[in-house]
Design goal:
By secondary structure, the protein is an alpha/beta fold. The protein has a single domain, classed as Rossmann fold (3-Layer(aba) Sandwich). The chain is 37% helix and 27% strand. A 6-stranded mixed beta sheet has the order 5-6-7-3-8-9, sandwiched between helices. A 3-stranded antiparallel beta sheet has the order 2-1-4, covered by helices on one side. The two termini are 25 Å apart.
Amino acid sequence: MTPSGMTDLLVERVSKRYTVTEPISEESDRGALRRTVSRFRQRPVEFWALRDISFQVARGETLGIIGDNGAGKSTLLKLLSGVTSPTTGQLTVRGRMSALIEVGSGFHPELTGRENVYLSGSILGMRRREIAAKLERIIDFAGVRRFIDTPVKRYSSGMYLRLGFSIAAHLEPDILLLDEVLAVGDAEFQAKCLERINELHRHGRTIVFISHDLSAVEYLCRRVLLLGHGRILADGPPREVVEMYRDPARVRAIAEEPAS
């Protein structure tokens, strides 16, 4: 906990359930026509992406979240950012939040890069004057000045990422949520991202960082959560949790333990 004792994110016994559909199987001896028809018959099945998750993030803390694909990481970030709501439990967010969950998330494809900067800033509650004051820094950081007045539907995935990250990181939110922001982009841009995240941390911003890049997690974060099968399997110092994650047998044993 920071000296101020403030908590920016509080997650209390949160679960998220989705309903998916799956084909209804038929016995193999019922005939070809019956089996063909059965492919079009489906039944709803419940899937719990998160189960009874509880943790808090102090003001100014940098929290890493790691885990295999399907562990519940992106679902958790979508809950924190308000993209979706929990099935059970409660989330408390204190402060203005900026989230970069997917490459170019929130961009309107028909608008230019410049117009999308203003659109994203407005969605985050920024005044137009405030966005205009930071516009040049956002463009320079993203390295897309040549294309800033081109509709973003013509951008490459790398350009989407650079502009999306630059907007999220320069609008100076109280809380910054980042999901795999280093997955696209060259080494030079990745280094710029890491330095910008560190700069935000030095200025007391709260950061939640999801990534498969374990080296970046250890470098940036002071605390790490390990998710598996929708549960928190570990919560502690980066090196300790990352070493646990690198031991699949150990992770599997913890995941198979009954939930307390």
